[in-house]
Specification:
Elements: H1 4-11, E1 37-41, H2 50-64, E2 70-74, H3 79-89, E3 98-101, E4 104-107, H4 109-117, H5 120-124, E5 145-147, E6 156-159, E7 164-167, E8 176-178
Parallel strand pairs: 1-2
Antiparallel strand pairs: 1-3, 3-4, 5-8, 6-7
Bound molecules: zinc ion (2 copies).
Protein name: Detected protein of confused Function
Domain Glutaredoxin: 65-106
Length: 184
């Protein structure tokens, strides 16, 4: 496959994987008592080429195969995810997908693929709680977002006191909130 060329270059850095200094989430985002996988990605429909889409899909599949509770952060659903990723990785141009495990930065599709192949991913995720096979969130259907109840997704609220329409601060730029049932 075409992506094999890149993988070889990256896998040599894997041996130092556990010892390198990790980028951590801000404490508000990351709770070390709650083993969690954060998966930043971009909806495949909005990705322009099949190559990157299938690569991203492969790494999602290899992580999803463990049936963990994954905090999926689709940057096409919420621009704040992109900003968060830019600030955590301290780069302006971010590539996707990017995976964090227990708040530690792991890497992108190539790293995840290599870790999966050598069994490292299975080892790290061994003590993580598992979901029931075939479980789908009843509330959001695994979309991870729900329409904002505060403004009904319109992003606008009429302020009775001030007498004008203002921006709803509960939701994101798409009038969505994180699904309260599967994203906390
Ligand atoms: Zn949900
Ligand atoms: Zn709202």
């Amino acid at each position: 496959m075409a992506e094999m060329r890149k993988n070889n270059a990256k896998s040599s850095s894997l041996s130092g994987f556990l010892n390198r200094s990790f980028t951590m989430f801000a404490p508000s985002t990351f709770d070390s008592n709650h083993p969690k996988v954060h998966f930043f990605h971009k909806n495949q429909q909005s990705q322009n080429r099949a190559a990157s889409a299938s690569k991203s899909h492969d790494s999602i599949d290899s992580v999803k195969g463990f049936r963990l509770w994954i905090d999926e952060r689709d940057i096409s659903m919420d621009a704040a995810y992109k900003k968060e990723l830019q600030s955590v990785l301290k780069v302006r141009k971010v590539t996707l997908p990017q995976v964090f495990i227990k708040g530690k930065y792991i890497g992108g599709a190539d790293v995840i693929k290599s870790m999966f192949e050598i069994g490292e991913l299975a080892r790290i995720l061994d003590d993580f709680p598992r979901r029931q096979p075939g479980f789908v969130c009843n509330s959001c259907g695994d979309v991870r977002f729900a329409p904002c109840g505060n403004c009904n997704g319109s992003r606008k609220l009429f302020d009775d006191d001030e007498g004008f329409v203002k921006r709803c601060f509960e939701c994101n730029e798409n009038g969505l909130i994180r699904c309260p049932y599967c994203c906390d």
